[in-house]
Amino acid sequence: MSAAISRSAIEVNLQVAEDLELERRQLHSQWKQRLEPAAYATALARRRYESLDPDDRLVAHALERDWDAALVAERKLSDNHRRAVQHEPEQLSEADEAGVRRLVENIPALWNAPSTTAADRQAIARIMLERVVIALRGATEHADLTCHRVGGIVTRR
User: Fold this and answer.
1) What is the residue extent of each domain of the chain?
2) Which of 25, 27, 102, 117 maximizes the CB count within 10 A of its CB?
3) For the chain, which ranges sit under pLDDT 50?
4) d(CA 157, CA 146)
């Protein structure tokens, strides 16, 4: 059991880290697609305002309002981006990865520790199991149990 848990745990951790990194890249790409047009709109409004003849005050006032509105919209979007980045999971450092690998190696010890409750073992099993197949043997109370663990490990009882 402990060897299967250890291999499964490694696969789970690697998959989670990979999924988080993919999600991070997608979020950054989406934010970039939203921030670039806002920056362009602000720069365009500024150029329009600055290229205007100062004697044309009515038009200057309208262009200044447009520029201010573009600045406000860009700042709001930048603030939203900053808040979103603060809440995104941090990328694991090499030291963090080494810590995760040590924890993975300790899962069998955790499983067998006297302080580990049945509920704790159940939680570990839920993380490690992809699917459980129970095949009844005819009309008896006997059954064959097949556990499909994360990482492709299959055990039968």
Assistant:
1) 2-117
2) 27
3) 1
4) 7
